[in-house]
Design a protein that fits this description.
Elements (H helix, E strand, L loop, with lengths): L2 H8 L2 H11 L4 H19 L5 E12 L9 E17 L4 E6 L4 E6 L11 H15 L7 E7 L9 H17 L6 H15 L7 H8 L2 E5 L7 E5 L8 E7 L8 H17 L10 H5 L2 H7 L2 H25 L3 H19 L11 H16 L3 E5 L6 E7 H15 L4 E4 L7 E2 L6
Helix pairs in contact: 2-3, 4-5, 4-6, 5-6, 5-7, 6-7, 8-11, 10-11, 11-12, 13-14
Family: Belongs to the GHMP kinase family. GalK subfamily.
Organism: Candidatus Copromonas faecavium
Keywords: ATP-binding, Kinase, Nucleotide-binding, Transferase
């Protein structure tokens, strides 16, 4: 779309409706300015007058902690933090990207999509997605993009997956006539992380960033995960979702993360299966002594977490559909307790550094005093962030309370947005 026309549409009523749905009443003007900013950035950097706008959400994991890699069930949502971009096809065999937030500017030749030796960073991730599209039989081509992001890095809201899904939406728009579905987006992102980052990730982050709204996913068949959108208005319950950074990232915790799927699969292997999704809890409970003897106590506990967490996801979805919000909050608390005690991903064993459990303990004390709310570890665990759901009237008090311990600016108030990774043009009228 011609830049001037796009600017005019951003000022219109349909744009205002879209921005309100995505960012809330207080985010309309700020985010309209973000879109204008990336348009100006694209024109100044590459000279384009015809362009398109894109957005891709960060994500929150509401329940289903460490279940996706064993083909279990999750409840997740797209949040109002996102990557936004202006982009245009350039008719060449080059992809040129400026990532303002991370101060990056790079060019990729389409005839050279091999990963670097170190297998890391944004360039390798982007090459991996392009190679993934090619391997799956889709078209790729040259384009230019100017990107900015407010998805918090290393905070369990999937800044990398948000970027991946943004690039997928561009490739879909420019070279595949919008025919690629979001499940394929997720597989492309997974391919890039598995083969170009050497990271054994599943599909949860990508799906939650791409689909939009609140979704439940059953990964029993990982090639064709069953995705259901949950039509539920959190705002109507007068509650907010808050995530709290606890002060340490995930960079040096690969061994801890890898141990969880490995130990769960170790239990599954005792029953001749690859993942726990193909084993029943009854089978494990009937053979506990053998499981403990041959796999160990912690693998047994982690397997039991998997089975119970799957049931909790189902119960939470039912509670939302039946408008039993208090039951939903109770299940969130149960999920957090299971992650802490059974899954054991809230701190590194033997370490005195326990930011996650400290933040959870302080939050539990706050909730106990007020008599309302829920909290749990958020995402991979061991370090990073926690999640709390609290009545809006308590949010400011809680943020002030928790930031005294975790540091100024460590708490973020979020909301669920209806659209994931999309080309914005089609929403502007």
């Amino acid at each position: 779309m011609e830049k001037q026309l796009l600017l005019e549409k951003l000022k219109g009523k349909e744009a205002a409706v879209f921005l309100q749905k995505m960012y809330g009443d207080n985010g309309i003007d700020e985010n309209r300015e973000r879109y204008v900013h990336v348009m100006e950035g694209l024109e100044q950097a590459f000279g384009h007058q015809d362009m398109s706008l894109f957005t891709s959400a960060g994500r929150t994991e509401i329940s289903g902690n460490h279940t996706d890699h064993n083909h279990g069930k999750v409840l997740a949502g797209s949040i109002n933090l996102d990557c936004v971009a202006a982009a245009a096809a350039n008719g060449t065999d080059e992809i040129r990207i400026i990532s303002e937030t991370y101060n990056q500017k790079f060019t990729i030749q389409l005839n050279d999509l091999k990963p670097s030796e170190r297998m890391g960073g944004t360039i390798d991730l982007t090459k991996g997605m392009l190679a993934g599209f090619q391997e799956m039989g889709y078209q790729i081509g040259g384009f230019d993009a100017f990107i900015t992001s407010n998805v918090i890095s290393a905070a369990g809201v999937s800044s990398s997956a948000s970027y991946e899904m943004l690039i997928c939406s561009m490739v879909n728009r420019f070279f595949n006539d919008g025919k690629i579905d979001v499940v394929t987006y997720a597989h492309v992102g997974k391919y890039a992380e598995n083969h170009y980052w050497n990271k054994a990730s599943g599909l949860l982050d990508q799906m939650a960033c791409a689909v939009g709204g609140m979704i439940t996913i059953d990964f029993k068949d990982p090639q064709k995960p069953v995705v259901e959108k949950i039509d539920y208005d959190f705002g109507a319950q007068d509650h907010s979702l808050i995530i709290v950074q606890t002060g340490k990232g995930h960079a040096d915790l690969s061994e801890e993360y890898s141990s969880i799927p490995m130990e769960m699969k170790k239990v599954a292997a005792l029953f001749g299966k690859e993942t726990l999704a193909d084993v029943t809890e009854e089978q494990v409970l009937a053979d506990v002594s053998r499981v403990v003897k041959e796999a160990g106590d912690r693998p047994l506990l982690r397997a039991l977490h998997f089975f119970e967490e799957n049931k909790r996801v189902e119960a939470e979805v039912a509670a939302l559909k039946e408008n039993r919000f208090q039951d939903f909050l109770t299940l969130i608390t149960e999920s957090g307790n299971s992650s802490w005690k059974w899954l054991q991903n809230c701190y590194v064993g033997g370490s005195t550094e326990q930011g996650i459990t400290t933040a959870l303990a302080l939050t539990e004390l706050f909730i106990k005093e007020k008599g309302r709310g829920a909290c749990r570890v958020h995402g991979g665990g061991f370090a990073g962030v926690i999640m709390a759901m609290l009545p809006n009237e308590l949010v400011d008090e809680y943020i002030s309370y928790i930031e005294k311990a975790m540091g100024q600016g460590s708490a973020y108030r979020m909301s669920i947005r209806p659209y994931g990774a999309v080309c914005v043009d089609s929403f502007l009228g």
